[in-house]
Structure formats: C-alpha cells, structure tokens
Design brief:
The protein folds into two domains: 1-78, no CATH class; 81-206, Galactose-binding domain-like (Jelly Rolls). It has strands spanning 3-5, 24-26, 44-45, 57-60, 65-69, 74-76, 81-87, 92-93, 101-106, 110-115, 121-125, 132-140, 146-153, 159-166, 171-172, 184-190, 197-206. By secondary structure, it is an all-beta fold. β9 and β10 (110-115) form a beta hairpin.
Length: 207
C-alpha cells in the first residue's frame, strides 16, 4: 500500500479530519521518481535495530555516526577526525648497527626509548590510504629537539617533509597532505641526544 495512516481504516469506514496529521507508516516500496525527500532525517537510536535488512540505515546516538547494515555487519559511515599513535618503543636508532637505544619502563608514560649516544630516532607510520594528515606530536624530554614527519617515494626515492617542529607541541601539517600508499611510505624523524627519551607519537588526520 505504501504510505498510510498508522491507524488503518477498513474499506468504507469514515476517517476523521483530526486524524489527518496523525503518524503515517510505510509498509511497501515508495517510488520517489528521482524527486528529493526534503528534510529527511534518519531514525535516531542508541543501539542497532533488530532484524535489519541490507541497506537499512539509522543514526547511532551512542557512537554519534550514521550506520548502514551491509547484510552481515553494521558499517559506520562517519568520517571526521581520527588519530594514529605509537609508543616510544616503536622508535629505533637511525643507524641500527649502533644499537643506540634502550627500551625502558617509565613510571609516567609506561614505555619509552632512551638514547645512549647522540643518535636520531626513526619511527614508521602506517595510515589508511586517503587520510588527510593534520598534525604531528612527539612527546619526550628536551622540548627543543626537532621532530619531522616525512614521506619517501617508494619508486623514485627521495623524501618530502610534511611538517616539522619541536617535541611536546602539536605541529600543523602543510595543507593537502593526503596519504597515498601506492606511491609513498611515511615515517617520523626525531633528533635525540644522549640520555634523552621519547615517550610516544601521535598523528591527527581526517578520513
């Protein structure tokens, strides 16, 4: 029948004018014929509805995202701000043969890397393809030491700087830094003098 009043009337039964604005229900396909559903709002729920069919969608007020049932799982459609992070132990010495770093337990940060000689630290970065890099932050001792987010062309070689700044600060990336894993690899370079520690790294991105 398509769209009808929530209280269906039997054939020949008189409907009241006051019922016109009552809730309607849809119990069949509705052909919009390429017209817009103006001011349409998805059903808002704190948890997924029971018995979904493929293509069914709702707005999840707990996750604050639109979700669609693909026939097997609920898929989140929300983009927005996301984060990648790594502990200090993900960093290693620029020249690995020197074995310049110790991985240690730190009472404040859990794990860190401690530099035994004047050696730069490197950390590989693995972001999803299409991510738009916004900020880099590397926490550790000695705020004045420089950190940089770089990308290498995996075919032609050579690297490009995405952003650079000091530790313990949010470093803004230059505009338009979209991750392309088909052509580039990404990594963090951190200056690190003897006895200095790196606690963790974080990258803010949009997806």
């Amino acid at each position: 029948m398509g769209i009808k009043h929530s209280v269906a009337k039997a054939s020949g039964e008189v409907g009241k004018a006051t019922e016109w604005n009552d809730d309607h229900v849809i119990d069949g396909d509705v052909q919009f014929n390429q017209y817009e559903a103006l001011r349409f709002v998805f059903n808002s729920l704190a948890a997924p509805p029971a018995g979904p069919v493929a293509g069914q969608a709702y707005f999840d007020t707990t996750l604050n995202t639109l979700r669609v049932w693909d026939g097997t799982n609920w898929q989140n459609l929300k983009g927005g701000v996301k984060y990648w992070s790594a502990p200090g132990t993900a960093f290693y010495a620029e020249k690995v043969s020197r074995q310049a770093f110790d991985h240690i337990f730190d009472s404040a940060y859990g794990v860190a890397v401690d530099n035994l000689t004047d050696e730069a630290a490197l950390c590989p970065v693995m972001l999803p393809d299409g991510a738009i890099i916004q900020e880099l932050r590397v926490n550790g001792t000695a705020q004045a030491r420089e950190v940089r987010l770089l990308r290498n062309n995996l075919i032609a070689g050579g690297y490009t700087e995405i952003c650079a700044g000091s530790r313990n600060t949010d470093i803004t990336a230059t505009a338009g830094q979209t991750v392309d894993n088909s052509q580039y690899v990404y990594w963090i370079f951190a200056e690190c003098l003897q006895t200095q520690q790196i606690y963790a790294a974080r990258i803010k991105y949009l997806l």
